[in-house]
Amino acid sequence: MATAAAHGHGSDKNYLNESSGLWSWLTTLDHKRIGIMYFVTVLTFFLIGGVMAILIRLELMSPGQTIMTADTYNQVMTYHGTIMVFMVIIPGIPAILGNFFLPLHIGAKDVAFPKLNLLSWYFLMAGALLAFSTLLTHKVDTGWTFYTPYSIKTGTSATTMVLAAFIMGMSSILTGLNFIATVHKLRAPGMTMYRIPLFVWAIYSTAILQVLATPVLAITLLLLSVERVFGVGIFDPALGGDPVLFQHFFWFYSHPAVYIMILPAMGIVSELITTFSRKVIFGYTAIAYSSLGIAGVSFFVWGHHMFVSGQSETAGIVFSFITMLVGVPTAIKMFNWIATMYKGSIQMQSPMLFALGFLFLFAIGGVTGIMLAVIPLDVHFHDTYFVVAHFHYVMVGGTLMAIMGGFYYWFPKMFGKMYNEITARLSFVFIFIGFNVTFFPQFILGSMGMPRRYFDYIPAYHSLNAISTVGSWLITVGFLIALYTIINGLTKGEKAPMNPWGAKTLEWTTSSPPPHFNFDVEPVITGGPYEYR
Amino acid sequence: MMWFNFAQAQSFMPTEGTKIATQVDNLYEFLLVVSLISCVILIGGMVFFVWKYRRKTNNDKTAYITHNTFLEFLWSFIPLVIFLGVFAWGWLLYHDMRTMPKDALEVNVFAKQWAWEFEYKSGVKTGNFFVVPVNKDVKLIMASNDVIHSFYIPSFRIKQDVVPGRYSALWFNANKLGEFHVFCAEYCGTQHSGMLATLKVVPQAEYEAWLEEESKVGTLPLAKRGEKLFAVKACASCHSVADASTKVGPSLWKKYGTKEHIEGMSDVDVDENYVRESILSPNAKIVKGFPKGVMPTFQGQLNETELNALIEYIKTLK
Q1: ipTM for the complex?
Q2: Which of B163, B166, B193 has the CB atom closest to A456's CB atom?
């Protein structure tokens, strides 16, 4: 061990150049390399889903048919949703940054089950290929929610798409399982549960959701396939089934899934704010337990997607009540982050800009979430652009801002190079402004009553839709600048130091990029993760 | 309440057509103001701290504050009280929205891909258009036989899914005269965004006169009845009648008496038999260039007279 450590310091060996060739990547069991593989694939899916988003906005720029037919629009809308949810946001943070940094954060050599980890990536790839294969046959037009009986009656490849989501769900379950075992079993000596960074708490809470909720989606999608292929009546009333049952099943997964998407983002934001304020996090325990609290309560709120579906008045009221309870731990986190900045030493580097952008957008996403939880308002807003704006503020404004911030933050550690700070800030400015220009008008459109998934709309909605489309171009420019920043950093970036931000968590105590087994000497932990004294 | 008025100017909600709509808006405006204050506190606090505690030197020492139980209690408890308050307000209002009035004027609503049909107790049927008297409780009893639709009148702040295999219901009491949009809010396929209807709210006397006029349809000439039926069944959502433009299906303008190219078959004459077959089993002969399985069958929904009326009407499209 001692000789290995000496050797590690002496050479430039790291996880990237430890072995080479495509095959060494495709068969790697190194959590860091698997994280990078997820990064490449998820980025590709994001670009495809992003092109779909631009097409949607172009079509909606003016009423009537603008660039595509109604059927094409419905397909583009479906692929945008499916790709972004199942292939980008759900695997996004846990599979890329979680994979890379969870073992580093707890001082482990790898995750608990490295082979399972690789298998998860192959499951995602298999599911994704199956999903994209439907583009070559009858393109799916059900929306990402696959509501019955439309998804049973439609003459498109819905069965294939549903099986693809099923396989990608397997990937999510295995990743979650792996992370739970890793957190429990592989913490370095002295790394108690109250010394793990908040990012790990967030990923851990997410993993519990992934393991418990995703099987329900799997069962639901399997039942849907059985109904479509064999004509067994489960959800289709024509066969004696109940279409609303599908919605219950679907949202029993998909509501917790919303937290699978946002909890890891909250974890990143906790890291960013403490690092760039150079200050201990305010209320570590409160943030850690509010993650678990959100994860727990999230299983009992699915009915708030169904206030107008015909569920009983009592059910609606109970779901509205429990939904209000989710608001409390979320508010606690917001206050804690802001309190962390109090009397700090705040540096406005690009990762911090994204973290502050997150707080801004998530505040708006949060208060509109409360509005949607109040039933009479939801009756008006349900299935309108108000909902579209709300979940984009949370999913894109929240998760995507955090992913960008986290990515810039850890870029020096992942690749051992620095990126251009100026273009990184520029990408933030375009994404942040573009995001608000795109989605804020959609709150107003929703208030005015414009339903979602509309290919065409009445003239009253024209000007706000046009503004929203222009916003989508600004976001596009922002992401192109971000892509340039990444490529430029990878090819021409200066060599990164071990700890460019002066952060206190463990990953910054090893070289950039880290060696194959993460630490030359197994770390021994004697204090909390944010000891800025 | 000055600040409520201010909020209303910013809220962009559609015209309030019922008392319920006004009550919903009051709740919305309250939440809007509370949300605005919360955002100002959160974002304002954030911006202030970012400016006040900006990094001055690279060796800044920061305070080591791990938590503050009293503060943490406050910012958990205050939001909880607000959340429970708006929850209770919402509950009371929702209860009113879901309590069906007795002795209401009942109208049956039938949703299908992609049109709304309305049927009154007197037997009068209309398509994508219906009329109700002002200041009268109206109850809609809704059904669908294909996929889920959702009946939505933005001005009344009401929405309810129309689910195949069961009835769902809505009620309203319009207190403003005029025409209001009805949207389909649950995604239902190709023409989802074209599944619109208009509600006209008129004084009681005018409503009665309209109902009387509509019930005379049975005595009209066959082609006129066909024209009415064409509107009721919303055939025009997919077939144009005034020009050769293509909507979802082929145009019917100047179609009668011509030859049609059929997918995988020889050409057919557009005569009484072909039109009849196309209504009752639409997938039997698909016109070249159009997808199969889009048009629903009208088997069992039209009697012989109605079929004849439609054929007569299509003959007149010149």
Answers
A1: 0.89
A2: B193
